[in-house]
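Example 9 (inverse folding). The structure is encoded as follows.
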């Protein structure tokens, strides 16, 4: 028998859109999985994130939560943000960090705080790739801090990470949203 995961997860792919097309229209629901074996089958079957064209995203969210700010479960939430300057990072480092983040999610690595996890996103961009872990309530500072510490430890990511509320990301001025927390 296959080994069940605690949650069912959905993979989404954001396809770099045609000019003028709405963001949501380029967000494709790929498949869902709920066993260890199906996760690996999927992971081994799809393109590595670092090989995607600039402008692409992968998102892995708990089944039923759409990978967007507007979802009921994300509305009051925010994200831990990991940034990767392309000049200073290999594709392999980015892929390894993303895989470890996925393993933290599906393996429920955050103990009691795991129920605050909504999902994770990797944005492949021309200059700066990003990985973010979305949680459901930006006011839960203690839980968010615990989650951030575990993420840093598990991924071995040494630069600083910042947490921002989606409501601040949406209205960001310039390229930076307000940072609620930093680790
Ligand atoms: P991004 O892809 O998160 O990061 O946002 P980037 O700036 O590095 O490319 C790019 C744009 O995509 C945003 O300014 C929005 O127009 C759109 N967008 C991204 N997200 C995550 C959402 C979302 O959750 N909802 C909506 N409506 N638009 C989004």
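The amino acid assigned to each position is listed next.
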């Amino acid at each position: 028998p296959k080994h069940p995961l605690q949650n069912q997860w959905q993979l989404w792919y954001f396809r770099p859109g045609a000019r003028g097309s709405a963001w949501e229209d380029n967000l494709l629901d790929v498949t869902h999985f709920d066993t260890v074996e199906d996760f690996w089958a999927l992971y081994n079957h799809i393109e590595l994130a670092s090989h995607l064209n600039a402008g692409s995203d992968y998102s892995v969210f708990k089944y039923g939560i759409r990978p967007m700010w507007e979802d009921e479960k994300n509305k009051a939430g925010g994200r831990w943000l990991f940034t990767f300057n392309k000049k200073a990072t290999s594709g392999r480092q980015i892929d390894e960090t993303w895989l470890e983040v996925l393993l933290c999610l599906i393996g429920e690595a955050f103990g009691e705080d795991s129920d605050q996890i909504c999902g994770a996103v990797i944005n492949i961009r021309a200059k700066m790739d990003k990985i973010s872990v979305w949680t459901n309530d930006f006011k839960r500072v203690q839980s968010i801090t615990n989650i951030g510490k575990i993420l840093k430890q598990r991924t071995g990511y040494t630069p600083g990470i910042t947490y921002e509320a989606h409501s601040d990301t949406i209205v960001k001025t310039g390229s930076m949203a307000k940072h609620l927390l930093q680790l």
